Amino acid sequence: MTAVGIDAVEIWTGNLKLDLPGTFAPEKGEDPEKYTKGLGLNASSFPDSYEDIVTMGANAAHRLMERKGLEPDDIGRIDVATESAFDNSKPVSTYVAGCLEQVYEGDFHHANKGERKFACIAGTQSLDDAYNWIRAGRNRGRSALVIATDTALYARGDDGEATQGAGAVAMLISEDPNLVELSAEQGYGSADETDFLKPNQQFPSVDGKRSVQVYLARMREALEDFESVAGEVHEEDFVYAPFHTPFPGMVRKAALLAFRHVTRDTEVEDELADEIGRQPRPEAFDSDDDYRDALREYMDLLKDTDRYAEWYDTTIDPTLTISREVGNWYTGSVHVARASALKHALENDRDLAGTKLLVGSYGSGAQAEIHAETIREGWAEEIDALNVDAQLAERYEMEWADYEEIHDAHNHEMDVDIEEFTTPSEEFVFDGWGRMGERKYRYVD
């Protein structure tokens, strides 16, 4: 069976930066460590006044196509995953295709285009759609372009305001990929939940405590479902485990639960037994409350063990490096985590070909998906081509007044016209409104 997976990836971050401990925390009267140590964030990325989900997605896709030497005829479908869409009918993918047709001789009239929505998991669902399209033999030798693009903007004063972020991830899905091969096996955990939603509104309504609980519950279900088809998962099976990352602090919670799960009934649990005891089993307790109390106590002890800390530092922490500097990208966040892990491996001269990632995606509402990815021989060349470090370094650092302006400029309910903070170059930009209220774009050399 021919391998199908991600052949190449590109990242495009918003051109503005908000320093959380240095700028955000003082204005909020908060301890900077609430953000750096609590949330695990140093900065957030924002779109300049001429940027939006279309420009960021089109710019990431354009850079990918240029680097890979692709023409429109090489692409058979364009799928955009977003929860920041501005039209209930016309998909963002058509705007992206229109942008790209400005810089290529050919067009994408032959390509299937769509838009996926299921909160933050839609990017992974779009990968699944492209995988299935190729596996079904409908691609006619062409590849798929999957783009996850979002502006995660919260209402001013909302508890989630510090986790904001904006950017896009473009991925090329092909046969015999260079980067990673996707597993045929998947696991799901899904339920009708109201942890995070946007009922005909731009800014989300969030039950923060509930959202964490739902995230962890659905991830557990997805992992158990994955094991039902792929076999038991053990800690040594995977070199990295990229999770959906609304903020790194949330991943710390998921990672602890994952480690407990994959070490149950293993030598690792035996080794830890002398130090913290064995994992509680529900059948040993008279009530659910007693079991949950014992489990919480065990988890607190597990978190402080050297064994867990070593695993976390090796398998999880490298997935969070980019996210710490950009905030939440919604549909792109788990794909940023994958890139971050592979970038860390490249920088540390790790030979990963043939090893595996365990990828945990999540979308509020709610659904989690677990699948495996096998790292391919060409992974290092693909990751080495990323210029994300340069993008992060070149962002314009906003003062508080700048942030207030740019937040208003991207608030759909406000009519704000502000000067751009940066000068666009070799990128697509928003260029005003058309006769039917549509957005218009142009390419700036």
From TrEMBL:
The keyword Acyltransferase belongs to this UniProt entry's keyword annotation: yes
Domain Hydroxymethylglutaryl-coenzyme A synthase N-terminal: 4-175
GO terms for biological process, alphabetical: acetyl-CoA metabolic process; farnesyl diphosphate biosynthetic process, mevalonate pathway
GO molecular function, one term: hydroxymethylglutaryl-CoA synthase activity
Highest taxon of the lineage: Archaea
Listed InterPro entries: HMG-CoA_Synthase-like, HMG_CoA_synt_C_dom, HMG_CoA_synth_N, Thiolase-like
Alphabetically ordered keywords of this record: Acyltransferase, Isoprene biosynthesis, Transferase
Domain Hydroxymethylglutaryl-coenzyme A synthase C-terminal positions: 195-412
Family the entry assigns: Belongs to the thiolase-like superfamily. HMG-CoA synthase family.
Alphabetical list of PANTHER family matching this protein: 3-HYDROXY-3-METHYLGLUTARYL COENZYME A SYNTHASE (PTHR43323), HYDROXYMETHYLGLUTARYL-COA SYNTHASE (PTHR43323:SF2)
Entry protein name: Hydroxymethylglutaryl-CoA synthase
Record lineage: Archaea, Methanobacteriati, Methanobacteriota, Stenosarchaea group, Halobacteria
